[in-house]
Write a structure and sequence with these properties.
This protein is α+β, with helices and mostly antiparallel strands. It contains 3 helices and 7 strands, in the order ββααβββββα.
């Protein structure tokens, strides 16, 4: 895994359990892959999600738009690239791409918000609001 504030990379391998009867990665598992990458990115930039939860604040996916470009199969080595493309005090948008080698095989734009007690929206943690944004590419 490599990371900077602007670009985070998360490596993973496709296991048999990630595939469907056709032998390709089951579509919903890409969401699991990008979730792991986001969690790893948040941890690397110093945001403690357990401390946030103890204070009654958690992250939530508000919106996700995904494109399935090419299939991945058992034993593929993949990399998830995460780039922050938009930021406001209340939400952030990330472009997440799953690559096999140099080829993008899946891409998603994910809007993340924070919610507090009763599901009410709250501001993003201050540490996140300091991260530089890379305009949508």
């Amino acid at each position: 895994m490599t990371s900077s504030a602007a670009l985070h990379r998360f490596a993973l391998r496709v296991f048999y359990e990630d595939t469907d009867m056709a032998g390709i990665v089951y579509y919903a598992n890409y969401l699991r892959f990008i979730e792991r990458a986001r969690s790893d990115w948040v941890r690397e930039i110093g945001v403690d999600q357990l401390a946030m939860k103890a204070e009654g604040v958690v992250f939530a996916v508000r919106r996700l738009e995904a494109d399935y470009i090419a299939p991945a199969v058992f034993d593929d080595c993949l990399e998830v690239e995460t780039v922050l493309t938009q930021m406001t005090p209340a939400r952030m948008v990330m472009r997440q791409s799953v690559l096999r080698g140099e080829a993008v095989i899946f891409r998603a734009d994910v809007t993340i918000v924070c919610i507090g007690a009763g599901g009410k929206p709250v501001r993003l943690p201050a540490a996140l609001r300091l991260i530089p944004v890379t305009p949508d590419r």
